[in-house]
Amino acid sequence: MAGGALKFRHLGRKSSHRQALLRNLVSSLFEHESISTTWPKAKEAQRLAEKLITLGKKNTEKSRRTAEGIFFSPLSNLPKLFTTLRKRYLDRPGGYTRVLRIEPINRNHDQAPSAILELVDGPRDMRFAMTARTIVRERAAADELPPGRKPPSSSPGGPRGGGRSRPLLPPLTKADHGGIRELTALNIRKVTRFRPNGLDDLGREVARLEQLKKTEAKQKTDAKQEPEAKQEPEAKQEPKKSYERKTRRPRPEGARIYSY
């Protein structure tokens, strides 16, 4: 029907093919906890994955039979759904998966919009890792600032643009949120709110990244201080052959000339 609401994406496939595709994507998602595919497929697989996790939280005989009919490999996916994932998302009211847009995977072909579909609060949670890296970077930037100084703020508006003057980034000082911005503090609350021992895990990840950064900086400093390696003596080069035409010797007197 023209102009009707889109209830689901057909993905250019008939019903049986589309259902098999989504079942395969969800089975891979529960096995690896993060998959890369096109954005429309990720959004449709996200809906099915959310329903499966809700069935796992119910943990009834009916929910087990329903989930068993969806997975392609129920022997490996069902125990994980009703044990590991059920405990992980028991206190979370919703939002068990996340879709992140990325650059097109098939760059040389159709340039289709791609995305990463992942389970939140897991070992491969990308937002958790990005937040930890942001904390390390902003703490290092705050340590380099003089005491009481803030970075210059820029305004997207002004007299020409007609917009209201406001800073693009919140003020960065060591006193505010321990040297991080307000947006980063909000992301910290998001990634640790329902994660078991979330603050402890985030602290360990930040400490690991800071130690890794110090190690890399030390290696670069040591590499600069080391004396240059002694150059090996060059091998004796053979004289180049001259292909210039040599002058003929004068013919001796009385020499015979043979012609064939």
Question: Which keywords apply here?
Answer:
single chain, 260 residues, mainly alpha, 3-stranded antiparallel beta sheet, 7 helices, 3 strands
Describe this structure in words.
This protein has 7 helices and 3 strands. The chain has helices at 15-32, 39-58, 61-70, 74-88, 126-144, 182-192, 198-225, and strands at residues 34-38, 97-102, 114-119. The protein starts with 14 loop residues before the first helix and ends in a 35-residue tail after the last helix. Strands 1-3-2 form a 3-stranded antiparallel β-sheet, with helices on one face. Helix 1 (15-32) crosses helix 2, helix 2 (39-58) runs antiparallel to helix 3 (61-70) and helix 2 crosses helix 4 (74-88). Mean pLDDT is 80; it is low at 152-177. It is 47% helix and 7% strand. It is mainly alpha-helical and 260 residues long.
